[in-house]
UniProtKB/TrEMBL annotation:
<protein>
    <submittedName>
        <fullName>Uncharacterized protein</fullName>
    </submittedName>
</protein>
Length: 85
């Protein structure tokens, strides 16, 4: 599983699923790496579910690649037959 903090996507100018007009109820987009070059870690910072976790990608290109995937996902969702769902 790859986790990308929403603020990273927002700073990169990528719409999140909540904001996206191109992703409907029947379609969920989640760019993932099929062949990751490194492993990172997720650290829980407290016992509260409301506190953010610390996400370390360990590869600067990983975030860039995920942002690129998140940017093209709405374009893919608009293609036939996906746009019909």
């Amino acid at each position: 599983m790859i986790l990308v903090p929403q603020d990273v996507l927002t700073k990169a100018g990528v719409e999140t699923l909540k904001e996206s007009k191109h992703v409907g109820e029947n379609l969920y987009d989640a760019p993932v790496f099929l062949r990751p070059k490194s492993t990172g870690c997720v650290t829980i910072t407290s016992g509260s579910v409301w506190d953010s976790a610390v996400i370390e990608a360990n590869d600067p290109n990983k975030i860039k690649t995920l942002v690129q995937g998140a940017r093209i996902a709405p374009e893919i969702a608009q293609t036939k037959p996906l746009a019909d769902n």
